Amino acid sequence: MIPMLRVEVKNDRPLICARELYEALGIKTQYSVWIDRIISLGFVSGQDFYPKMNKSTGGRCSVDHYITVDMAKHICMLLRNEKGKLYRQYFLELEKAWNQPEQVMARALQLANTQIAKLQEQCTELGDQLIKQQMLLEDMAPKAAYLDLIMNSPSSVLVTQIAKDYGYSAVSFNRLLHDMRIQYKVNDQWVLYADYAGKGYVQSRTIYMYPNRTGPVVRIQTEWTQKGRRFLYEFLKEQGILPLIEKEGG
């Protein structure tokens, strides 16, 4: 009886570890010298053998070679001794078993099952992506609708109009923005705190009122621009306050 050798499969071909064969045959020459000598006989890397770098354990990395059964049989023939004959016969039996119809069918089924499993995994991933995209689109649809409403509105709007979008009265909405330290009142006009002033969120409009015959009364009115209206949307959303259109959409 001779020691069994490890068999690995690459490109549906059985491969033998050349170092294991070298040790089993009792070769005395240093492995690196021996394998170079064998390769120089005309064997081709990637066709007859496949080098494989081993992990370093502190010293230099060693290289193993995985060889085809044909190359292993050729090596055994070169020895012309009893071990060489035994291992050549071993490789002949291995080759015969490998090429039996049932073994070929078993490998084909295994390959098909592997490919099916990969396809199923890819389909599952694709399905998950589609679901996530659909959820994202559904989540963004109300936001897009409200932002479209903002962009289609006039260049500036009164706070009353914005308040209505959120289900507030103008008074309660102004108070909300005051409590959130967005605006405060000066001479009966709402103005923005320094953090938000000068960013194009609001503009002032002069209103002339004629309550009696003594003359007009001048009032400065704050109006929100489209940019300011969008700022309010983003700011309030962070606080969990959504416009009615989004609440209905959710």
Automatic annotation (TrEMBL):
Organism, scientific name: Coprococcus intestinihominis
Protein name: Phage antirepressor KilAC domain-containing protein
Cited InterPro entries: Ant_C, AntA/B_antirep
Domain AntA/AntB antirepressor intervals: 17-81
Domain Antirepressor protein C-terminal, first and last residues per copy: 137-238
Pfam families: ANT, AntA
